[in-house]
């Protein structure tokens, strides 16, 4: 069986999925609650599918399009849109390392809302690979126009990362970003320019995180002043499905993909349902869970190790 190779933070990962090769001061984002209904029985079949790639990838990557081709094969007639931050593939890849996430998500919101096909759809479905998962969730929370019906994330960092990934030898874009990341994570300069810093979260430096984070502290509604639109928009999801990889050593901690918090010193895990973000329902996750709309999934292997059996199951279960 052919290999599915995922480049994430310029690190190579392999998986058995056909021939896929996926090489993986802030402006105000448009924040509003959009009055759409996404009741499953009211939606045409199939809905358009948007895919947001991960760190070090680009929207034109052959493997990413192979994922889209499989989606169309399983659900004929599916229109697939690959989220991009630049029409030039190299610039789109660079934007996965360098850029202001508030501005990037605002651009994606505007691009999707203006797209001649997506903008006329009653709803869309979404897949987020690695960091693309929390970014696509940011789309749902901050604009959601057109609204997302089913959101599936793979190996994402919904509760952030506590360690930065290492760069491959010779990847100077990654290495340049890494040097800035390790300098002053919470400075406005870093937080408005270095993408991974904007979802870095250190519970041992929590107040600095709350004050300085440009992205994650906001979209997780962790600050004292909550944005009710975020929860209202997430409640519009029919399904929110979060996959983590059993042997993931790329994402630290990998449990972040389920919104768990892990003590960096002791390794003790606090699961989502034991955290205030769930108990006080800052994002509507408890509301979704009580209605059977929140799913926690695991799959064997390392980061982005995806079998064709898994992907076909996802397309049949959540996007048919």
Question: Care to describe what's here?
Answer:
This protein has 320 residues and is α/β, with parallel strands linked by helices. Helix content is 31%, strand content 15%.
Mean pLDDT: 87
Measured as a percent range, the helix fraction is: 25-40%
The SSE string, one letter per element, is EEEEHEHHEHEHHHHHEEEHHEH
Unreliable spans are: 1-38
- In what range is the share of β-strand residues? 15-25%
Summarize this structure briefly.
This protein has 320 residues and is of the alpha/beta class.
List keywords for this structure.
320 residues; alpha/beta; 6-stranded parallel sheet; 3-stranded mixed sheet; 11 strands; 31% helix; globular; disordered N terminus
